[in-house]
Amino acid sequence: EDIFFRPMVAIPELPADARFVRALLQSEELLQQQANSVFARCDLNKNGQIERDELQLLCEAMHQRIGLKMLDQIELGRRLGRFDVDFSGGLDSDEFVKLYKNLLQDAVGDVATAAPQLSRRRSRSRPKVTEQSLELPSDPRYIRALLSSEHLLKQQAFGVFVQLDLDGNGQLDRDELFGLCLALHRKLGVKLPDDVAVGLELAKYDEDLSGGLDPNEFVNLYKQILQDSLGSLAQLERPMPAIKAGDEVLAPYLGEDSSRRYHALV
């Protein structure tokens, strides 16, 4: 008796969390790019179509990655038939984009179009702001999605603003901004500024000279921080060059802080 095993397909192109999904749903260009990458990965027999078995593999991967509800065989057939406009029995790349968008919406729901209301939290104590408590992006793809959509950027920036505005006065002062810088440094590798640099950045974006940043002023600063973080993440992903015997290396390779150079022995 022949037994056929269905291959498990890793789809690294899938979004990593609900925030990235919402970013895709806000940008048709980003959605198209990502759907094309997922299509190429799932088209196992390379016939230019996604068929029922390939669609099932995609849904299983999306279930594991972003919590898409598992579809049974009947629902899979219905979903495929709904988007198979030319009745070919499979989905071409254009038909697949529409299906993929539908699956993403099922996973996280439609993106709200209204800007979030800024609820105020008043507290006499100032709890510590950490990278775990702040809803900060960490995926470079998600950061690029935020930077490509002003609406989505404002939504995310307003959410971070509310978390940082610990005294609930509608402005971020230098101490609150430093909490953001510390969390970004730990999560994204952004260079940690000193108090003077934080004050200079605050003054740069404090258009009404109030001594703090209101939500709209903070959006501009947050955008600049995300742009800077992309460069930091690229540096972290760059592989360390290999060292051969006789190469001249800087002291930090050896755990020192000086700028003396040494010759590698191994």
Describe the protein's architecture and organization:
- The protein is mainly α.
- It is built from ten helices and two strands.
- The protein has helices spanning 18-26, 28-42, 52-66, 73-83, 93-108, 140-148, 150-164, 174-188, 195-205, 215-237, and strands at residues 248-250, 261-263.
- The chain has a two-stranded antiparallel ribbon with strand order 1-2.
- Helix 2 packs across helix 5 and helix 6 packs across helix 7.
- The model is unreliable at 1-6, 110-127 and 251-259 (pLDDT under 50).
Please outline the helices and strands.
Layout: H1 18-26, H2 28-42, H3 52-66, H4 73-83, H5 93-108, H6 140-148, H7 150-164, H8 174-188, H9 195-205, H10 215-237, E1 248-250, E2 261-263
Antiparallel strand pairs: 1-2
Helix pairs in contact: 1-2, 1-5, 1-6, 2-5, 6-7, 6-10, 7-10, 8-9
Question: Helix proportion of residues, in percent?
Answer: 40-55%
Distance between the termini: 57 Å
State the strand order across the main sheet.
1-2
Q: Label the structural class.
A: mainly alpha
What's the SSE pattern?
HHHHHHHHHHEE
Helix run count: 10
Q: What are the segments in which pLDDT stays under 50 over at least 5 consecutive residues?
A: 1-6, 110-127, 251-259
Strand content: under 5%
**How many strand elements?**
2
Major sheet characteristics: 2 strands, antiparallel
